[in-house]
Amino acid sequence: MVSSEDEENEKRQQANDILYKITTFMDRYVREAKWLAYGVGTVGLVLVLRGVHATDVFSAAKDIPKHFIKNGVRLRGRVTSVEVSGILQINHQPLLTIKPRWLQRFYKTKSLPVELAYISLSPLGQQWIGQNVVGKRVLFLPLGIQERSHPWQDSLLATVYIPKIFRRNTCVNDELVKQGLCKVSYAVEQDMCQMSASQSELLNRLIGLESAACKKEAGMWKVSPSEKKSTKIVGALKGIVTLPWKGLKSVANYFGKWFKRKKE
Asked: Model-level pTM?
């Protein structure tokens, strides 16, 4: 007969065998399980980055996803030049760059044409951009696509910012109007009905800045002393010419009231 002690030893041996098999399985396949988890995580991360276009380089206005414009996703890049028409040429820089720097030298990316929203760029404004914006890294908020006669001539309508480390970012659109270097390009009534909240807010802000620049006579709104003097002379002459007519009008009104009282 098998004693109780032998039964206990046999059970212990079976438990040890099961534990040994489990530990052996884990030691043998734990690396594969880890690599499988890493692989699944990597694939998921790639899909997420692809969904947010984190590695895409935009070189045309039509390449900008519609949800970027709708949700106000800020992009970044470096301004290479400014055209006579007022369009900024910006080399878009994606959120993540996969290609190494030494390899990027052999790939020339086409710049993205960006138009300052609701700004009619003047020669003074173009000169200011050349001195303060060209060659610098900027942030730009896409607001829409300015369509032209040909699709390849379309430009991105945007608000451009010069990033500051310890200060508020400088809005190029605001600064040009504030200094009186450019005029506000008003939208037609049809476009105003289709404006988003961000577009309407920007246009109203620019109109207010233009009005303030006119009052301060900043930039192009500055009036020369000779023009001020001629304006005063014209105003004085106008007052002298209209003074007799005002006197006759007051006399006529007086006699009109007097005759009316007599009749009553």
From this structure: 0.65
